[in-house]
Structure formats: structure tokens, C-alpha cells
């Protein structure tokens, strides 16, 4: 955790991935996890893992700005359901990440607070609207992140930054505490370096939440073990390709 904060202090002034950091709280949580392990106590599935969340998810610690001057000093009275699940899994939330203001954009150039650049080429954008989360993961300024996706806002910046992004099936992950862009489409999901890491994150954040009326009842659709699913055969899976989606793309991209 200390190494992550050191990296953020060194590199984020250029990248602009973070809106806020929680150093005192993060180090205290990391010490709490270390103490649990040392005493032989049980720890959660993300014990000690430094994680960031997009700044449109409510937290009682730090402001929830949605990258807007309007909410620059807004402090939520409760945590988003996904934030609570991360904390219950003993994750260390080290900060909140930049985004297009109120998620209205796809490049993270439209933040009201700062611009995020792509860690692979600082002359290029990281995508958006979860560009801060994707850039932080790609730059190794955290181990995993949460983003939100309406029409590509997890998947597109993950692609731009060379990491893994997953938009879960609608209703699988609670949206309680998310400042919505499009409530009928929004989903919270992971951005990670590997598919296995995304599966691990899904094992923590997925599940029914009575506080979210669009959350799927687990009796109707039980939550699987996503890590176990990675070992299942894929021969019968089908992938649909819509040619119009790549029309006009560079030849290199089309190939």
C-alpha cells in the first residue's frame, strides 16, 4: 500500500488519474489486515489489495465529485453498495478516480477538475468516461478499479489503456450509491490487469441488493463463482460480430 501511494505521488501529477487519495485511511486499513493475518484471523477475498473507485460512487470518506465543480465539496452520507462490499472484503481503497464530468463523455477530457492522459502515450486520451480508473490500473497506480458503464465507459477506456474491463449483466451488481447517467443502462464493473483479477472482483461485488430495485434476485439467477468459470471449456461459446461497428476504422484496427 505504501508503494502505491509513493507511485501516485510520483506519477499522477502527469497522468491525472486520481481526483482524491486516502493515504491515512488506506495505511490504517492495510495495518488492520496485517494484524488480522498475524493473529491468525479470517480475512476477506481482497485482503490488503489497493483498489480505486470511480468518483461517481458515494463514499463517506472524501468527497464524491463526479469530476464536477458543482459537487466539489459534496460528502455523501453513505457508501455505495459496491464500496461497502470492497471494504467488507478487506480491500484497501486508496483513492477515487477522474472521469468525464457526470460521466458525459468518452475521453476523460471533459472532467471539470483535470484531464487524464493515457499512460502509454501522454499525447493521447485514456478513453472514458472511466478513464481515470483505466489509466490508474494501466500505470500500476493501483491493483484494480471500479468503473461504471452505460454505453462503453468501462470497456472502451480499458481497451485504450490495454487492460481488462467488464460491464456485468444489468442487475448483477448493485447500483445503489452510484450517481447515475442512464439508470436503465448503467452498471458498475471492474477494471483490472488480468481476466482472473476481474473474476475475483466480480466474486466480491456481484449479488442481489434490496436497496436497488433493478438488482436481480439470486433465486432467479444465482451468482456463480467467476474464478471457477474461467476453467470451463469455451468450445460452444459464440461471439457475435457486428460489421458496422468497425466500419471506417483504421485498417490496422479492422485486422
Automatic annotation (TrEMBL):
Coiled-coil residue windows: none
An annotated Gene Ontology molecular function: catalytic activity
Pfam families: Amidase (PF01425)
SUPFAM superfamilies: Amidase signature (AS) enzymes (SSF75304)
Domain Amidase: 1-254
PANTHER family: GLUTAMYL-TRNA(GLN) AMIDOTRANSFERASE SUBUNIT A (PTHR11895:SF151), TRANSAMIDASE (PTHR11895)
Protein name: Amidase domain-containing protein
Source organism per UniProt: marine sediment metagenome
Lineage summary: unclassified sequences, metagenomes, ecological metagenomes
Amino acid at each position: 500500500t505504501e508503494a502505491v501511494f509513493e507511485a501516485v505521488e510520483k506519477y499522477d501529477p502527469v497522468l491525472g488519474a486520481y481526483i482524491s487519495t486516502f493515504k491515512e485511511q488506506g495505511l490504517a486499513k492495510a495495518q488492520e489486515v496485517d494484524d488480522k493475518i498475524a493473529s491468525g484471523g479470517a480475512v476477506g477475498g481482497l485482503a490488503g489489495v489497493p483498489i480505486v473507485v470511480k468518483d461517481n460512487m458515494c463514499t463517506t470518506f472524501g468527497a464524491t465529485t463526479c469530476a464536477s465543480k458543482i459537487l466539489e465539496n459534496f460528502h455523501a452520507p453513505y457508501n455505495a453498495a459496491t464500496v461497502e462490499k470492497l471494504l467488507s472484503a478487506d480491500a484497501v481503497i486508496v483513492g477515487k478516480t477522474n472521469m468525464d464530468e457526470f460521466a458525459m463523455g468518452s475521453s476523460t477530457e471533459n472532467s471539470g477538475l483535470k484531464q487524464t492522459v493515457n499512460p502509454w502515450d501522454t499525447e493521447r486520451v485514456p478513453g472514458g468516461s472511466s478513464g481515470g480508473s483505466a489509466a490508474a490500473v494501466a500505470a500500476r497506480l493501483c491493483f484494480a478499479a471500479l468503473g461504471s458503464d452505460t454505453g462503453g465507459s468501462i470497456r472502451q477506456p480499458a481497451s485504450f489503456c490495454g487492460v481488462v474491463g467488464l460491464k456485468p449483466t444489468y442487475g448483477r451488481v448493485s447500483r445503489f450509491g452510484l450517481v447515475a447517467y442512464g439508470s436503465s443502462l448503467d452498471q458498475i464493473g471492474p477494471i483490472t490487469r488480468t481476466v482472473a483479477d476481474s473474476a475475483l472482483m466480480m466474486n466480491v461485488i456481484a449479488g442481489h441488493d434490496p436497496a436497488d430495485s433493478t438488482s436481480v434476485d439470486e433465486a432467479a439467477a444465482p451468482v456463480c463463482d467467476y474464478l471457477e468459470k474461467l476453467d470451463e471449456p469455451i468450445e460452444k461459446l459464440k461471439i457475435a460480430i457486428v460489421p458496422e461497428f468497425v466500419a471506417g476504422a483504421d485498417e490496422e484496427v479492422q485486422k
